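Dear colleagues,

As part of the handover before I leave the project, I'm documenting each prediction I ran so the next person doesn't have to rerun anything. This entry is a single chain, and its sequence is reproduced below.
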Amino acid sequence: MLHAMVRRAALVLAGCLLMACGTRSAPSGKVTMFTRVWTLDADAPYGDGTLRYATLADATSLIGGRVLATATGAARWTPRGIAVGLTADGVIEKVEAAERITGLRIADPASGATVREVAFVDAAGAAVQLRAFNVGLTIAGGRLVHSYLGRSQALDLATGRQLWQQAVRGTSSVVVAAGDRLGLVGDDGLIVVDAATGAEQWRAAIDGTDTDVVASPRGGFFVPRGERVVELAADGREVRAVAGRFSAADGEFLAVMHGKDVVVVDGGGAEVARIAPRGGDDYLAAPGLCGRAVVYFRRGDQTVWWHPASGDALPVVKLEARRGEIEGQPRTVGPTLTEPPRCVGGLVLIQDWNITAYRIPS
C-alpha cells in the first residue's frame, strides 16, 4: 500500500553518516551481532512513511519509488516515471501528462523492460485522467485504487478500464487493502467495500489517525479507538481489543505502545512480551515486528534492540544525533527511529534519517 507522502525532508549531514555508525559497538561493552548490509541515503526520509509503506520482497523491493535488489540495496533500474506498486506482474509506474495520471506502465522487476502499457478509460471507452498530486494510490487485487478528497475509484491494471467509484465523506485519501476488501477512511470512519465492485459491505467507527487503520491477518482491519486497538474480522465483527496505540502487526502478532511500555499480543489477545523503560529518563519508541521478535528504540542507551521470542535481547545498532537541514531550517535532532523496523529476506530494515538494512544473525 502506498500513500501520498505526509512530508519530505531534505537532510544535509554535517557529521556521522549511518553507513559508518552502523558498525559501532553496542552499549555496555557488547558488540552487535548484526552486520550492516546496505544503506539507502538519498533524500533522507523523516517520518514520512517511506519504510512503513514500502513493498518488500525477497528478490526485489520498492522503497520510496526506487526499485532495489533486496539483498544488496542496489538499484535494479531507474523507473521512467513514478513507481507506485510492485505486484507479481511487475513494477507499476504512473504515466502522466499535464499533471494528470493518464495510464500505467507495467515493467519487469529485474530488467525494467516494459511488460505492457495501459491507458485509463471509462466504461464507454472515453479517456480518463486522474489528479496526480496529494492523492492516495493503492494496488490491490489487480486494480489501482485512486483516492482524493473523499472520492475513490478503481481501475483495472490489465486493461486500464474504470471499474467503480465510491464517495467517502471527508478529505482523507487513505485506502487500505485487506484480502478481497478495501477500507476507505474518512470523516464517517471506516467504510469497507468489495474490491471488485466497490459495493459497500459495512462500516466501523474509528477514534484516532487514519494511518492507524491497517489490514489484519484475518481479512479484516485493525482500527484505533482511543487508547485501544480493535481488530475487526472480514464481516466487521470485533475479534479482539488490545489496550494501547498501534505500532506494527506481523501475522497474528500485534505490537502496541501501552503507556510507556512496548507490548506484544498474540491472535487470542494474550500478552506474549512486555518491555518497559529503565528509569525516568528512558523511553521506548517505534516497535516493529519480525514474527515474534520485536525491534524497538531505547532512548536510555540510544540503541535499536532486537527482542526475540526467547533468550536475551540483542543490540542492532547505536544511533547518533544528526545535524542537518529540515524544511529549510538547520536543526539538530536526537537519535530515534522515525518508523517501526521491518524485516525481509533475513534483513531487518531500520529507518532513522536513512534506511539501513542489517543482517539478522542465525
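Residues 18-359 form a domain with the Methylamine Dehydrogenase; Chain H fold (CATH 2.130.10.10). Residues 1-26 have pLDDT under 50 and may be disordered.

All the best with the project,
I.
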